[in-house]
């Protein structure tokens, strides 16, 4: 089943709903970053959470960043997603695994102190950053707290990582339900109770398809507004690598030419490697020197 984002409404209840499946995306990220099981599980949740945040942006090209920093073995991660279902990210320490209960292992990986930060665009063209300290050391609970304190919009949220046979990332799903300004508080509270009782996982067992799972969890009346593919995509390219080298300036490039004679840039997000060799370094240096005249 392909990874998708479904956005829609329960108009009779005044609820907005976003459903995201990021299963294949999480498995690709696990392979790309060489993630051990505990790191892979936490990052899978992070990808689903980041995609939910991205889906809330107003324009397709607007992006939201979900960043977790902690003193535990995993160190943290960053997820960057846009409103069109494109997502990328990285984990600070990939080789983290605690055998046994996955939830307990995730808590151990996060350590004892940390914080969760969301960076998103503002209507004025800038960016707004909001942070909450980790308290539950559970990404779902702490992201719920972020919504409560930073968004001040009544929100129900869940991030499920469900195993299937020998595959720990059997299904990776996120759900967000928000009350619209004229929405029904009782309807949102009913959704909160269902989700808190593990209702999303149970609904997925009944019907794994997005709209089927929503019907199984929240009932009839869902109106689909958008259905988009989710994909792990990185915007890096050779031109951006050149721009990074240009930032060294003439003096910095001279230092590189005197020692290494090339610059190697590895993208944190997709692991692609860019090599700027000596002739290209001299070309960039020449353009920078001409601009200084």
What does this structure look like?
The chain is α+β, with helices and mostly antiparallel strands. The protein folds into 2 domains: 4-232, Hsp33 domain (3-Layer(bab) Sandwich); 238-292, Alpha-Beta Complex (CBS domain Like), CATH 3.90.1280.10. It is built from 10 helices and 13 strands. It has helices at 23-33, 37-55, 102-110, 139-151, 185-196, 199-206, 210-218, 238-246, 249-259, 278-292; strands at 4-10, 15-21, 63-70, 76-82, 86-91, 114-121, 127-133, 155-164, 167-179, 223-229, 231-232, 263-266, 273-276. The strands form 3 sheets. It has a 6-stranded mixed beta sheet, with helices on one face. It has a 5-stranded antiparallel beta sheet with strand order 8-9-2-1-10, with helices on both faces. It has a two-stranded antiparallel ribbon with strand order 12-13. A hairpin with a 6-residue loop joins strand 12 (263-266) and strand 13. Helix 9 packs antiparallel against helix 10. It is globular, with a radius of gyration of 21 Å.
Features:
293 residues, alpha+beta, Hsp33 domain, CBS domain Like, 2 domains, six-stranded mixed sheet, five-stranded antiparallel sheet, 10 helices, 40% helix, globular
